[in-house]
Design a protein that fits this description.
By secondary structure, the protein is α+β, with helices and mostly antiparallel strands. The protein folds into two domains: 65 residues, lambda repressor-like DNA-binding domains (434 Repressor (Amino-terminal Domain)), CATH 1.10.260.40; 172 residues, 2-Layer Sandwich (Beta-Lactamase). 45% of the residues lie in helices and 12% in strands. It has a five-stranded antiparallel beta sheet. Helix 1 crosses helix 3 and helix 9 runs antiparallel to helix 10. The radius of gyration is 21 Å and the shape is elongated. It comes from Rhodococcus globerulus. InterPro entries: Cro/C1-type_HTH, Lambda_DNA-bd_dom_sf, MLTR_LBD.
């Protein structure tokens, strides 16, 4: 979808991406199928409020909602503020507190492209030995994780972890229709698979098992996002925190922090 395509065609593309019929969307949005058809074919020009309403019903990300508004001849409705700007100061403080409080365990903050915004000191334990070019800003944490010159060489369950990362990224590409994420997915698919793997049915979460010297660390992660964002940057920030899966891993990180 491009900005040059009229807004109705873009809305239709989003509807089809969500696997909705015109009847299904019209029922959800409270809009007649006739009016929706006119919008999609360009016979009717939707208002700013209608574009926002249909975007909400289709769960279109904020960045792409702005694109739809521009295509419809309207100004963007959602700001895009840098974390260093005054309006985001409270958010920046909250992010720093969350990341710092997670010490001694690793935590990273990433943007919508999975580029690193900030990480705590424990992250260096996971990235130790990675090629320098992978650590140069902007650091893409998925590339760093799966690249053969990154963390991949030390990930014990590489095939399982790669499958988890690829599946997660593929879902994001489907949801966002982001071309850059699609290109990243294609790149990651070219990296070594790590061989076959078998699901550990006793595990409740997909673990990250990685060697740190002579120690095998076992961790799982949680993702935190901000609720009800009205800013593009805020909507696209995610905080990934890693937790030890066993006592040995917990003791390892605690010892490193002393």
């Amino acid at each position: 979808m491009t900005q040059s395509t009229h807004v109705g065609a873009q809305l239709k593309s989003w509807r089809e991406r969500r696997r909705l019929t015109q009847l299904g969307l019209s029922s959800t949005a409270g809009v007649s199928t006739r009016h929706l058809s006119f919008i999609e074919t360009g016979r009717s020009k939707p208002s700013k409020d209608m574009i926002i309403h249909l975007s909400e019903c289709l769960e279109v990300p904020l960045r792409q909602r702005n694109t739809l508004l521009l295509a419809g001849g309207h100004a963007p409705a959602y700001s895009e503020s840098a974390l260093a700007e005054t309006p985001m100061s409270a958010v920046s403080d909250a992010i720093n507190r969350i990341v710092d409080a997670h010490d001694p365990y690793p935590a990273v903050v990433v943007d919508h492209q999975w580029d690193l915004i900030v990480g705590n000191r424990a992250v260096s334990i996971l990235t130790e030995g990675a090629a320098s070019f992978l650590l140069e800003p902007p650091v893409n944490v998925l590339r760093l994780s799966l690249h053969p010159e990154g963390m991949a060489e030390r990930i014990v369950n590489l095939a399982q972890w790669r499958n988890h990362v690829i599946a997660r990224l593929r879902r994001e590409v489907e949801v966002t229709a982001d071309a850059q994420l699609g290109a990243l997915l294609e790149e990651l698919l070219t990296y070594p698979s790590g061989g076959e793997w078998y699901e550990d049915e006793s595990s409740l979460l997909v673990p990250l098992r990685i060697r740190a010297g002579d120690t095998e660390l076992a961790m799982f992660s949680t993702t935190t996002v901000f609720g009800t964002p009205r800013d593009v940057t805020l909507a696209e920030i995610a905080i990934e925190c890693f937790y030890p899966s066993d006592r040995e891993t917990a003791e390892f990180f605690r010892a490193k922090s002393e």
